[in-house]
Amino acid sequence: MRVLFLTPRQLGEPRSGGTIKSAAVLSYLEARHSVEVVCFRDQDEQPWRREGGVVSIPLERDRSVGRLLSSYAAGVPLSIQRNRSSAMAERIAALLEPGDHDAVFVDGWLMAQYVPEGFSGIRLLHEHNAEHVMWRRHAELETNPVRRPLVRLEAGRVRRYEAGLLARFDVVFAVSEPDRATLSALVPTGPEIALLPNVADPTLLDRPELTPPPEPVVLFLATLSWPPNAEGLSRFLADDLPALLERVPDARLVVAGSGAPGRLVRRVHESRGVEFAGPIDDDEILYRRARCFVDVGVGGSGTKVKVLNALARGLPVVTGPDGAAGLEVSSGEHLLVAGDREAMVASLEFVIQEDVAWTNLSRSGRDLIRRRYVPEVAFGALDAALAGR
Question: Distance between CA atoms of 194 and 205, rounded to whole angstroms?
């Protein structure tokens, strides 16, 4: 089958949760079909060199008052307006018009605007999140009195836009059962909503088994520009970490990842017991050093690839309810889920001190990923959609 794959970012070096999932889906499709890729790239980014070719179109995604006002004038959410390009629209229309593609796979809501109304092939949309839920939670977390009403307004605009775009596709893929139920409620008479779970980076399963390190190092590795991660980390530094240091005085929190805003970097450097690793090229150094992985993110939607990656590497995970949401996990078997600060601190202390429990969590987490969160298991619904079943 001939598939046109539309994605908002280049996937040559996937690092964030979203790009890891997108790259996994692309690789899965390429092994079974003829795939042509079209994507955006940042203005200062080198074009992605890919076997089989790729159409990579530069885009300036600036955030400005002017861009916000133009989104209101166009009647679309700001995120959609920031990803608008006449060059992209013209290129995709030219590719699809001759009838050379049997299906179009749209990787994320930002690219849905480019599928022409007249395309008669199979239309598939991959929703990394229930976007309107993510924006609603963002509004709930916003503390700035000036931004709060704007974010609430934007959440409503996203909800209306998302409901409209879902109806234009034959199959919409959600990443978790909660997201599937949410999207189905948004368009009760709309397309089929199928499940396409997030997966871990499969190369992590090929690495050797870890053993519990002696140092009480707690790792948080995430995209730090993502507001739910930045907000959750700020809360953890203010409340949970001081309580942990009272119980385990030599504990260290290592914060790693790209895109950290300056105020967050300053907060990390000012906090006792914290190291800032910043962007990293080799995550293995961090995984081997750490005693456990902590997911401190709040809000958001979908499922957390950073949690799946830690499980795949065999690093025990301690998380709040948001980090486990949508995953087929059992607290105490695959990871530890803490419902409040006391439970979070107690869980971290337990994993730091108990070697037998550490080893059991490490092995059961990896076993779960192998059984459920690898492409050959997780992506069966994609095969069915392309077969018209």
Answer: 26
Q: What is the CA radius of gyration of the chain?
A: 21
Write out the DSSP string of 155-217: HHHHHHHHHHHHTT-SEEEESSHHHHHHHHHHSTTSSEEEE------GGGGGSPPP---SS-E
Query: What residue ranges do the domains of the chain occupy?
Result: 2-199+374-386, 202-372
Spatial neighbors of 76 by CB under 8 A, at least 6 apart, are 84, 113, 157, 161
Homologous superfamily of 2-199+374-386:
Glycogen Phosphorylase B; (3.40.50.2000)
Which residues pair with residue 40 across a beta bridge? Answer: 57
Tell me the per-residue pLDDT of 25-51, one tens digit each, with 9 for 90 and over. Answer: 999 999 999 999 999 999 889 999 888
Topology of domain 202-372, CATH: Rossmann fold (3.40.50)
**Tokens 């690219």 label which residue?**
111
216: left (phi over 0), alpha (psi -120 to 50) or beta: beta
pLDDT the model gives residue 99: 85
Contact at 8 Å (CB) between 113 and 63?
no
CATH fold match for the domains 2-199+374-386 and 202-372: yes
> What is the pTM for the complete model shown?
0.88
